[in-house]
UniProtKB/TrEMBL annotation:
PANTHER family: MALONATE-SEMIALDEHYDE DEHYDROGENASE, METHYLMALONATE-SEMIALDEHYDE DEHYDROGENASE [ACYLATING], MITOCHONDRIAL
EC number of this enzyme: 1.2.1.27
Lineage of source species: Bacteria, Pseudomonadati, Pseudomonadota, Betaproteobacteria, Neisseriales
Keywords, in A-Z order: NAD, Oxidoreductase
Family: Belongs to the aldehyde dehydrogenase family.
Species the sequence originates in: Aquitalea palustris
Superkingdom to which the source organism belongs: Bacteria
An annotated GO BP: L-valine catabolic process
GO terms for MF: methylmalonate-semialdehyde dehydrogenase (acylating, NAD) activity
Domain Aldehyde dehydrogenase residue range list: 16-479
Protein name in the entry: methylmalonate-semialdehyde dehydrogenase (CoA acylating)
EC class (word): oxidoreductase
Length: 499
């Protein structure tokens, strides 16, 4: 007998509950098209119940000692480590990326959990003695209340872990809305978070799409929203939630460029470029999707193509170099953009459209694809392809390369490959992109720092994790105090407000 497809639960007030929704969608293995589970589009009442439970829990959670909060995350990081293989297998099944990439996805989230465990050193105020005679001023960083997170499909472990651990460690309660395309590993991480000791109501999860996201944007009891996803949806979330008076941070789409100077270590530069362009099938917001070859570096194209050709495409569980795209629709979109690149006159040096994978005839596979002769007015340059497609541009000088990047509206990440310190320094100083790699292809900062995408890739001024997120998830309260201990002065009437 055929087994019933499991349903993904909501988490409301500490209970994993079945949704009453009439609208569900399938979660599909991108390598096989097997239906793994069904996820509900939560009802308005269920979103309301999740927010209400978070609001109630805030009253006691905000007063929970900082050490008690920190110890939950110490335990949580241990549980994630112990379940690493199981989590990675689940992630690969529903998202498609290789097992090695899945472990990387979880590990980068785990680092944020470790950071949350050191909250005692992070959520600190300031103190100035004698700002006037006998008057002191100090600040406290107080949690906001109910916060919410909306996450994309491409890092279903790391990005939820960018959000709820830091929000909860700072004393807030949370409502998470994971990607409806791959919520299963996120839910397993949420189960482990409860096992680590997060109390009922402090973390809640609702599933859904547009309607649930809009309900979160509008809800008067939600004080702040972290969003990671496409520029189209992020811009909508930013405007809608800001109008409703919320604090909002949106990390969005990208078009990341690498500059390759002819003095670069050729072997290393081409290896790194190949990994950063095609790894995770190009479904990374920090993927390098454009390489600007300067001067003689343009003669390296055949070697780059040879390296890309040697990459193995396959089902993520077999640990190839790259797995399938998330959905049939994503595969169609990437293929049609490749068609458009050809039609617009770019040279398709390597074509991944017809790639075949033994044993997986139905997978959403696209192989590494490379275009040379790309110009900045082409659709393949202007759109975020979010697939394994690398566009090559050629220029004569570093200045021209920098000008191209600075004219692109996105500002998530960029890199330069060179052995010249002077060129690297000029790049670092003049490039208008928030995250810069120098001989480092995907410069995602570790959680001691913050994720600092910029310009069209970000709305809101504070980034996820690191020091910035402490400010995002707290309100600075400034206290100015005077204690009288002098009998003579206590009799005086003060009529001015000058200190
Ligand atoms: P997406 O914008 O389609 O979805 C993100 C979230 O928004 C999901 O939870 C989804 O349910 C919700 N959503 C989708 N359509 C909506 C609508 N019309 N109204 C309201 N909510 C809606 O993004 P995705 O395809 O899941 O993820 C890929 C995108 O995310 C890429 O553009 C990538 O660059 C970006 N991304 C950015 C970063 C970063 O840090 N800058 C990191 C990862 C991914």
């Amino acid at each position: 007998m055929k087994q019933a497809v499991p349903s993904v639960k909501l988490l409301i007030n500490g209970e994993f509950v079945e949704s009453h929704s009439q609208q569900w969608r399938d979660i599909i293995n991108p390598a096989t098209q097997e239906v793994l589970a069904r996820v509900p589009m939560a009802t308005a009442g269920e979103v309301e119940a999740a927010v209400a439970s978070a609001k109630t829990a805030f009253a006691s959670w905000k007063k929970t000692p900082i050490g008690s909060r920190a110890r939950i995350f110490l335990k949580y990081q241990q549980l994630i480590r112990e379940h690493m293989k199981e989590l990675a297998a689940l992630l690969t099944a529903e998202q498609g990326k290789t097992l090695a990439d899945a472990e990387g996805d979880i590990f980068r989230g785990l680092e944020v959990v470790e950071h949350a465990a050191s909250i005692g050193n992070l959520q600190l105020g300031e103190y100035a003695e004698n700002v006037a005679g006998g008057v002191d001023t100090y600040t406290v960083q107080q949690p906001l209340g109910v916060c919410a997170g909306i996450t994309p499909f491409n890092f279903p472990a790391m990005i939820p872990l960018w959000m709820f651990p830091m929000a909860i460690a700072t004393g807030n309660t949370f409502v998470l809305k994971p990607s409806e395309q791959d919520p299963m590993v996120t839910m397993r991480l949420v189960e482990l978070a409860l096992q680590a000791g997060i109390p009922a109501g402090v973390l809640n999860v609702v599933h859904g799409g547009e309607a649930v996201v809009n309900a979160i944007c509008d809800h008067p009891d939600i004080k702040a929203i972290s969003f990671v996803g496409s520029s189209r949806v992020g811009t909508h979330v930013y405007h809608r939630a800001s109008l409703a008076g919320k604090r909002v941070q949106c990390m969005m789409g990208a078009k990341n460029h690498a500059i390759v100077l002819p003095d670069a270590n050729k072997e290393q530069a081409l290896n790194q470029l190949t990994g950063a362009a095609f790894g995770a099938a190009g479904q990374r917001c920090m993927a390098l999707s454009v390489a600007v070859l300067v001067g003689e570096a343009r003669s390296w194209i055949p070697d780059l193509v040879a390296k890309a050709k040697s990459l193995r495409v396959g089902a993520g569980k077999d640990n190839p170099d790259l797995g399938p795209l998330i959905s049939c629709a994503a595969r169609e979109r990437v293929s049609s953009l490749i068609n458009q690149g050809v039609a617009e006159g770019a040279v398709l040096e390597l074509d991944g459209r017809e790639v075949q994978v033994d044993g997986y005839p139905d997978g959403n596979f696209v192989g590494p694809s490379i275009f040379s002769g790309v110009s900045t007015d082409m659709a393949i340059y202007q759109q975020e392809i979010f697939g394994p497609v690398l566009c090559l541009l050629a220029v004569d000088t570093l200045e021209e390369a920098i000008a191209i990047i600075n004219a692109n509206p996105n500002g998530n990440g960029t890199a330069i490959f060179t052995q010249s310190g002077a060129a690297a320094r000029r790049f670092q100083e003049d490039i208008d992109v928030g995250q810069v790699g120098i001989n480092v292809p995907i410069p995602v900062p570790v959680p001691l720092f913050s994720f600092t995408g910029s310009r069209g890739s970000k709305l809101g001024d504070l980034g996820p994790y690191g020091k910035q997120v402490i400010l995002f998830y707290t309100q600075t309260k400034t206290v100015t105090s005077r204690w009288f201990d002098d009998e003579a002065s206590s009799g005086k009437v003060h009529t001015t407000i000058s200190l």
